[in-house]
Design brief:
Blueprint: H1 3-10, H2 37-46, H3 57-81, H4 90-105, H5 108-125, H6 145-148, H7 158-169, H8 171-182, H9 197-222, H10 227-247
Helix pairs in contact: 4-8, 5-8, 5-10, 7-9, 8-9, 9-10
Length: 266
């Protein structure tokens, strides 16, 4: 994809600006793919099996094209804004970012989110679920109820429950890492009245937690013999949910482009 193509997409009024910043990256289950710039950029590669195959040379050629176009746009924007990359002390910036990384990783929410995905991996790899390795993934042809709402109240297949849990168990950690990193910066006063990216990322994490808790709750129907193990995981998620809501009190009210806006604006 060339720089000109990216610019053209950016000017497309049918696309919802920034919708990809606060989604769950589950394009197969999303109703807004036709209005997402990220999806449009990747379509030419996903429609071409060779371009989507990491072991194929065409995949790396296309990735190189995207990198070059992105670099060109970055240099062009920097020139317009009067930013001199040569004047930036990247060594000092790297040290500062390294310190931030450690702070973020040690934050209570991030530690709990990491603990959660470790619990999930341990559960499915343990003797509790030997048969789940044979579970087929949901084909995604029909949008299930859990994707239409922020919470799921059934019914659903075991395939869907497992797919939901697996999809979100690392996602929650990644989004909370971004949320916590966002509150470490010293935002200027001019941005105080604007929606915060940290709240948006926290909201997506909370939605993922809600859906994961609902999925685990439905797992009781399939594995009543393991209710104690499942309940322990649900309780851990609930504690994490409450803590995220306390640290990011405005997260639930964050308006995500497209997803939370009135349909007439979409």
């Amino acid at each position: 994809m060339k720089k000109e193509e990216i610019k053209k997409l950016a000017k497309n009024k049918d696309l919802i600006p920034g919708i990809y910043n606060y989604c769950d990256r589950w394009c197969e289950r999303c109703a807004f793919t036709s209005r997402c710039m990220n999806f449009e950029m990747s379509r030419k590669y996903t429609d071409d099996p060779a371009a989507a195959d990491i072991s194929n040379e065409k995949f790396w050629q296309n990735l190189s094209e995207i990198f070059k176009a992105t670099r060109d746009l970055l240099e062009e924007s920097a020139e317009e804004l009067g930013i001199d990359f040569d004047a930036i002390d990247f060594e000092e910036t790297s040290r500062e970012e390294g310190i931030k990384d450690k702070i973020v990783q040690n934050h209570e929410c991030c530690r709990a989110a990491k603990k959660y995905y470790e619990m999930v991996d341990a559960f499915f790899e343990s003797e509790y679920m030997p048969s789940l390795h044979l579970v087929d993934k949901a084909d995604g042809k029909n949008t299930p109820e859990w994707q239409k709402n922020d919470t799921f109240d059934g019914p659903a297949t075991l395939d869907e429950m497992v797919e939901i849990i697996y999809w979100y168990h690392h996602f929650i950690y990644v989004k909370l890492m971004r949320s916590v990193r966002g509150i470490l910066g010293n935002a200027s006063e001019m941005w105080e009245d604007f929606p915060k990216d940290s709240d948006g990322s926290a909201k997506v994490a909370l939605i993922a937690i809600d859906r994961s808790m609902a999925a685990w709750g439905n797992m009781h129907n399939y594995f009543p013999a393991y209710q104690d193990q499942i309940l322990s995981i649900i309780m851990h998620l609930d504690r994490l949910r409450r803590r995220v809501e306390k640290i990011f009190p405005a997260a639930r009210n964050f308006i995500r482009p497209g997803f939370d806006e009135p349909s007439d604006k979409c």
